[in-house]
Amino acid sequence: MKTFRADLHLHSVLSPCGDLEMSPGNIVEEAYRKGIDIIGITDHNTTRHAALVTRLAEKKGIFVMTGAEINTIEEIHCLVFFENTDTLTLLQEYIDDNLPDIHNIPKIFGHQVEVDEYENIIYEEKRLLASAIRKSITELEKFVHLNRGLFIPSHIDRLKNSIYSQLGLLPENLNADALEVSRATTIEKFAQVHPEIRKYTLTRSSDAHQLCDIGKETTTFLIEKADFNEIRMALAGKGGRRLITA
Amino acid sequence: MRITDIIKELDLKVISGNSSITNEVTGGYVSDLLSDVIGNAREGNIWITVQTHQNVVAVASLKDLAAVIIVKGLQPDSDTIEKSNIENIPVLSTETDTFNIAGRLYELLNKK
User: Fold this and answer.
1) How high is the mean pLDDT in each 10-residue block of chain A (246 residues)?
2) What residue spans define the domains of chain B?
3) What interface predicted TM-score (ipTM) does this complex get?
């Protein structure tokens, strides 16, 4: 068993709030430079950069968890990850079917552009990706698990777009693979106020929107090798796989 | 004023939690952030929201609210209905939006 350092929550330039320098190429370079073994590509309500990040990261020996940060109808941000291109395509279709047709205004919300490995803009997303999809957190969780994905409500400590801000309490029987505690606090501090979070596996990631923030907070996995199923097992604490808390 | 009077005056539909609809209402609160409701709603308030999640009932019960009005004809989740019957929290529904139902409720509660 080996340790792998993971930053599972990154936004590329495709997210309206993502910095223009957050191209797939730059993200991979920065993660490599900082010695991060596993990265999650989690743009707001889109998976369009997942394939390119994966391809570029493979060359550097970095494993990519592909997914998105979905904004539910309650305006709760949730990280979702899928194992292969088939299920990731299902996720993109689910988003396309449920994202309201509200147009982005780049001057206000920021640019939503897809770039190739040479930093050329190849697509501009017209719909505002910051919108809430027309599905509840309960419906999203069911969809994710039906397709063998992983479901991790984001930055649960934050005062906006978190499960606590929107729903007040941790829902009974919440079927989450983990909960993410943001880098604005620590697990210890937040668990003092909400000890009930200890029932869940707790991850930390950077939620980077600019290059310098990549790796500012990470989760260390004790697993055999860096792949989706090993990470799934570690989150569930199965087969000796687990998270190592600093 | 009792919840039953408000149901009649505002033409609300009773979805669940019928056992407590004779309770007294002390005032109203409007918010879609449940964390805000926990912090600021007062006992006996009738709460107007777009949220349909089961935590609506958990929060209403925690704060001893009189009832919840779900607006715009939104249908509460099935576990929300189930819970409201257990916790005795009336869940009411209106086709109207928050602005209009809150205005009418305000008028009704402040009528002399």
Assistant:
1) 98 94 98 98 98 98 98 98 98 98 94 96 96 97 98 97 97 96 97 97 98 98 98 98 87
2) 3-109
3) 0.88
CB-based contact B59 A137, cutoff 8 Å = no
Q: Which domain holds residue A24?
A: 2-244
Locus of tokens 């109808």 = A73
Which of A174, A195, A76, A132 has its CA nearest to residue B34? A76
Q: How many degrees, rounded to 5, is the angle at CA A158 between CA A154 and CA A164?
A: 80
Backbone angles phi, psi at A89, to 5 degrees: -65, -40
Q: Provide the shortest C-alpha distance from residue B78 to chain A (in Å).
A: 11
Task: Enumerate the residues of chain A whose CB falls inside 8 A of the CB of residue B54.
Answer: 171-172
pLDDT of res. A245: 77
Considering only CB atoms, which chain B residues are within 8 Å of A136?
Answer: 52-53, 77
Strand duo A38-41 + A2-10: pairing: parallel
Task: Give the per-residue SS3 of chain B.
Answer: CEHHHHHHHHCCEEEECHHHCCCECCEEEECCCHHHHHHHCCCCEEEEECCCCCHHHHHHHHCCCCEEEECCCCCCCHHHHHHHHHHCCCEEECCCCHHHHHHHHHHHHCCC
pTM flag (> 0.90): yes
- pLDDT on residue B112: 65
Q: What residue type is A39 in one-letter code?
A: I
Q: Mind spelling out the 3-state secondary structure of A86-140?
A: HHHHHHHHHHHHHCCCCECCHHHHCCCEEECCCCCEEEECCECCCCCCCCCHHHH
Average pLDDT, chain B: 96
Number of domain units in chain A: 1
Q: Which fold has domain B3-109?
A: 3.40.1390
Mutate to test the interface with B, among A169, A170, A174, A190 (most CBs of B within 10 A): A169
SS3 content of chain A, % helix, strand, coil (to 5): 30, 20, 45
